[in-house]
Structure formats: C-alpha cells, structure tokens
Amino acid sequence: MTAAASSASGPTTRSLRPSDASSRAEAGVQTYFNELSSWANGQLRGEEVLTLYLAAEDSNFVRFNRNLVRQAGSVRQRSLSVDLIEGRRHATGSIQLSQDAAMDQDRLAHLIRSLREQRSVVPEDPYLAVSTDGASTEEITVTDGARSDEVIDEIQTVSDGKDLVGIYADGSLHHGFASSLGQRNWYQTSSFNFDWSFYLHADKAVKNAYAGQRWDGDAFRAKVSTASQQLAVLGRNPVDLPPGGYRTYLTPSAMEELMSLLAWYSFGLKAHRTRQTPLLKLATGAEALHPSVRMTEDTAGGTGPNFQEQGFLRPDQVVLIGDGRLTDHLVSPRSAREYGVMTNGASTYESPESLALAPGTLPADRVLEELGTGLYIGNLWYLNYSDRAGCRTTGMTRFATFWVEGGEVVAPVNVMRFDDTVYNILGRNLVDLSDRADTILNPSTYVARSSSSFTLPGALVEDMRFTL
Questions:
Q1: DSSP states of 128-194 as a string?
Q2: Which CATH superfamily does the domain covering 21-227 fall into?
Q3: Rounded mean pLDDT of the chain?
Q4: What is the model's pTM?
C-alpha cells in the first residue's frame, strides 16, 4: 500500500481552546469520537487499515413568515463514514451515531464485518490513496455570542412592520478524522446564517443575508436599513429595458451566484486533464481574465476544516488564478495518484470550499457614484452554462435590481436575462472590484448544514450583455 504524494506545504497544527461553558460541553463529541476510533482499531485483522470521518452538527432552525416565527426546531446528528482497507482493496460505508457507546459499537462492528465481506470480492483500486504521513491537528473556534432566542427577538424587533420571510440557523459543526495508522484531526466551529427577504407584493422583494460566527446587532441593523431603503424604491413603477449591453454593478450576493456556478468542475485537476473544465480557454491561454483578478481556495479564511475526508491536510491557501491567469488546480488524493502529482487536500469533487476573490480599489461606499448610469443588480438566479466550453453563462436578475442615473437610484427594473462570458465579466469588461469583500456562508442544509463559504467583492462591469 502506497500513500499518495502529500502536499508540499500542509498547514501546521492550530489549536484555539476557548474556556466558555458551551465549548466544554461540546468537547464531549471529540472525546467520544476518539474513544470510538480507538475501540474500532481493536476490531481489525492482519494488515487492515481503518479510516473514520465524522461529520456532526448541533443546529437550531427557525422559519419566519410575515415577521412571525412559523416553525422552530433543532437537529443533532453524527454521521460516521468508514473505509476498511487491505492492500489496494477497500470498501466504504457509513452509519449514524447515537452517542450511546454500546449501540454505536454494535453498529460499527456490524458495518466493519459487512465491509470486510464486500472488500473480498471487489477489484484492486489503482487510485487508492491513504494518508500515511499526515500530521494530527486540532482547531476549535467557538464563540460566546448571543443566544438563539435573543437573536430571534432582535430580528423581529428590528423588522417590525415588514413582511420578513426567511430561515435562521445556528449551532456548532464538528468534523473529525481518525486512522488506525495513528493520525487524528479535529475541527469544530460555531456559526449562524440568516437567509431572509423583505417581501413587498407579487414578485417584488429585497433579498439579503447575514452570516458569521458572532452575531453583531449593529451590523444586522445596517443591513435592515439598506434593505428598507431598497424596499421603498421597489414600490415605484418598474422600467422595462431592451436587450443589449449595460454598465452594471454586481453586488457580492450576485457575484456569489456566478462563483457558485464557476466552482463546479472549473478548478479540479481531473477536469483540466480531461478537458472538461469551463475554464479551458483560460487554461490554454486563448483567454485571460483582468490582471487584477486573483482567486484562491482560502481554507485559513473560510469556515471549513483544514483536512478532507481521507485525512489529507489542506494548505492555508491555494492560488487558483493570479494576475488573471490560471495558476494552480485543486488536486484530490485520487487525482494525485492518477496523474502522479502532489495533492493539496482537495475533496473528491475537487471543488473549492472556501473560494475567495481578492477585492479591488472601487470604494464600496461610492458604488452608485462610480456606476453613474446603468444597472445595479442585487441578486441573480437560475444560472447555468449556455456554452460550457466558452464559459458563457446565462441567468436571470432577481429581487432588488435597479436602474441608476447620475449615481441615483431611479426605479426598479423588471426581470431580465443575461448571457455573457466570464472572460467579459471578469476580463475585458471589468472596470474594478469593490475594495471590501463580503464573507458569504453557504446556507444549504441539504443532508446537513454546509461549512463552505465565499469571500467576494462586488464587480463593476462596463458592458454586460442582456438578451431578454
């Protein structure tokens, strides 16, 4: 059994041990995982190797409609993924943990026996990668912020008189890796995410989001103030604009939709080697982005673990695009084995989990003035590729999109469809990026709360193309 090449500059151990009562209570999850891992190692036979990956959460959820709490609940789950390896053969499975030792040991023992039977009939895996020299790490970041009930009261008080619709979630996320070879990794964080809108009528609403690790009432009230001003403008008669090119400002929220689409298979080594990446023209030098564009997988600045599901460590930062040109790829352990290169701890899907676009020089408080006359786009949706090989994307404007004249918001704009390439939006037609970047946590709760994030500025584009 041969390990995949390790990252040349993996992160060092980082340990942040808070002393608040909540962190002490949650330390039980880590202790339980370590004890269960040690017990599982005792179930191995011969030359078997076992790896365990824990994804756990303790989350609260509150759903709002008309600024009233319509549904509230909590979720506590611990999902354990298991890989039983011998030589170049392995089998994987998963179970849900109850944190009842006898019950979980019985479930895990049954799973190991089942995986042993499966492994006996599967072929060798030529791209099997096992972390044999990874360092043990621990990172715990737990904030002693406002309680959920205090946050809910503040949301309703500040939004009084508005038709607020949204989902609030908070709580702790835990990720752990353990190997029978002795490696242990632990990551724990607390965060909140409030995805909300002020609804006016029909399809008119102002969408917003506030997320982070410590609730700041002043920051939330500032967002509410801005959204209230935009809601007032939405009450004006909307304008219809003909298809064509418009000077456009895309807010960080609108940019997040573009970057979410771009993240799919654009940066992975396998997508590039098989020439399926939407950034193929950038890779071949046929196209370039604006020299100011710098994109990184910023693990140190994100909200996810600094190790992946097979225990390979992630460097603090991987520069994907620098000076507008492709610099590096995300390389999973399997791709590292397949193509004979170093892994940088990317997930199996080789998609960024903490994508950051460096800010520019456009003052964020002078966006309307610098836009002058054109479109201010608060949100985009229904994005997809209209020409994948050319990195041409299409989608719709949504919620608060406004027509601006002389640096002043004039009227809301009825829904429009754009169709343009990333090479135009972030390349030849990019005027500047805002000097402040927003950190946007992924609000997805499909299966579990997401730990991925984006850190993005807004973008001023000279000539963005709209077709409808």
A1: ----SSPPPEEEEE------HHHHHHHHHHHTTTSEEEEEEEEEEEEEEEEETTS-EEEEEEEEEEE
A2: PmbA/TldD superfamily (3.30.2290.10)
A3: 92
A4: 0.91
